């Protein structure tokens, strides 16, 4: 099935998806911001195990935070590309990206062919 370019309604649908995930990510980063501070636990009231627990949780929070930051950048880039009229066009082969693919991943900047080629060179 040939991939057709998106119509305005489809672009608007994806734009609102991008904006709501952008807002969700920003809220998530604000709320995890406090948990990525150095672990300062009262040694007397908590045991060693819960301190290790706290450090592990903190490391997970940092990893989540980095993932969220990366995703946020991709979302911002996608919104910029909507504004400049380049959205839904593959950055590599310049073919249109399928709407179904963008519904699953509205920040995708490569078509499915180029994406799998970049993952399995
Ligand atoms: Zn492509």
User: What is the SS-derived class?
Assistant: mainly alpha
What's the helix count?
A: 4
Strand content of the residues, in percent?
under 5%
Give the total of beta strands.
0
Distance from N terminus to C terminus (CA atoms, Å) equals 25 Å
Mean pLDDT across every amino acid position: 88
The succession of helices and strands, N to C, reads HHHH
Low-confidence stretches: none
Report the bound ligands by name, code or SMILES. zinc ion
Give the fraction of residues assigned to helices.
55-70%
Which of globular, elongated, flat, extended, rod-shaped describes the shape? Answer: elongated
- Gyration radius, in Å: 20 Å
Q: Sheet with the most strands?
A: none
Please explain how this structure is put together:
The chain is mainly alpha-helical. The chain is 63% helix and 0% strand. It is built from 4 helices and no strands. Helix 1 (8-33) packs antiparallel against helix 2. The longest helix is centred in the middle third of the chain and has 36 residues, at 48-83. It is elongated. The mean pLDDT is 88. It binds zinc ion. Zinc ion binds next to helix 4.
């Amino acid at each position: 099935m040939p991939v057709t370019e998106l119509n305005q309604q489809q672009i608007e649908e994806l734009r609102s998806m991008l904006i709501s995930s952008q807002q969700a990510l920003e809220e998530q980063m604000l709320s995890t911001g406090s948990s990525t501070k150095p672990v300062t636990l009262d040694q007397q009231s908590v045991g060693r195990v819960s301190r290790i627990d706290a450090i592990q949780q903190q490391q997970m929070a940092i990893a989540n935070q980095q993932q969220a930051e990366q995703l946020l950048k991709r979302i911002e880039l996608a919104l910029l590309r909507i504004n400049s009229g380049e959205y839904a066009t593959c950055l590599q082969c310049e073919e249109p990206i399928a709407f179904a693919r963008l519904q699953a991943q509205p920040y995708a900047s490569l078509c499915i062919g180029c994406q799998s080629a970049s993952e399995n060179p």
